[in-house]
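haha ok so turns out i had the wrong file open the whole time. this is the CORRECT one, sorry everyone. sequence first:
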Amino acid sequence: MFHLGKSTVSQMHLDLLTWVLLLAHCLLCVGWGVSQDSELDAAEFVILHDPSAEVAVSSLHPGGALYEDTSVSVQAAKTAHMNFRNAIQKYEVDTVTVGEIISGNIGQWLSRSDMLFLAMVALQYNFHGNLDELTDEEKYLLSDDYKRQALQGKTGQELYQIVITRPTVHLEKAEKNTPLVTVATTNRPLSNLVFTRDQQIITRRGLVLGRLNSFQRNLETRLMGQVWKMLAVPILANMTAVEGAFLEGGDFVPVSPDIAYVGIGLRSTWEAVEHMLTHDLFGTRRVAVVKDELDHNQDRMHLDTFFNVVDETRVVVLEDILGENSPKRRMVDVYEQGPDCKYRKTIEDVEFSLFLKREGFQIIPATNAQQLKYFINFVNLGHLPSHPHGVIISVHPDLGSTLKNYGYKGEVEYVDYRGITVMYGAAHCTSQVNRKKPPAEPCVPQVPDFPPENREMLGGRKADDEL
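then structure:
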């Protein structure tokens, strides 16, 4: 295992050797990609985003940037994020940021033209005036050809800053000196890129790019798609190509090789889940669809805001959603894959806590006050070789003692993350954990060898909920 940094990651020098090691590490993904059976699989490396210029611009109006609090500070966010990164690396799990991948040498080697394309999309020219009055020379100064020329000499880091801040240059016809004059430059920053969990999910079959359900975050998935391409990870599917499909990473929790949980409601939609079921993208025998049909509250926007997996027998759940009489209750449908590889609904509208108990889990309840302080939104680094009982990184000071009281034997590392939580997310939201496993093979239909006289009769039957 190589290491991208020690505890002093703020002084990390990304030299040629570092990037050669990262490239070698990620080339292990070629031909099979990334995969995970469960959140309990040992973490191999974690993709993060160090908050920077985009947060400085976005924090001028926190509400418009989807932030939770008005006290957003770039320096506080960077300090908190640094502490989080150090906590992960303490357990010999590698970390790398989106910026390091894109602006470092590996990005220049693998996809300079693609990065330039993203910058072309991010940078806009807006002319204020009558275009018909411009000469051909002046019109050229507003063209894509001119924009490309302006970007061509930029370094990877400079292109990356353009992508995350998304500037628009406002121009008018000049009265003297130059044909056009810049009157203002505005930004449409990627305010929430720090939440690197949201843009994709990793199933037993591999990587699926999502589609974010907020206008402000449209470009994030395209950027993360480029990151995965640079890491040589195959993409199984892209939800932006599926009509009505929205899929956010916080709504996906892989529980075991047998079952994965996916939430639908405020952010992710049934159309995305249906597409994944139809195309065998989960790789598990069962898929539990956790439905938010009554609540639709930003405080509980994703599955990982009210539910998380501690170990094979314990889960943490927000107590307010539990019980058939709760006005915030979640209901569960289960789809099971048959010998023909098609998923069919086998369980419908079971209350969430009842379903979890049937699955053999001990429920550790979290109060509403705890949930609002991100008690549930911890990240599980899994059963590491050095810590076989597991490692959890928490942003709530009481989680460790609570889990110990319920019999958890693993490590719980607390990080003061208030510089990030004011932006409406915590440890699980801000970490795309990659667990080095070969993806599961696609399902192969098992067709029994029926006698000829029975084939016509069997061929005419179809289940109502078949997918």
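The longest strand covers residues 343-351.
again sry for the mixup
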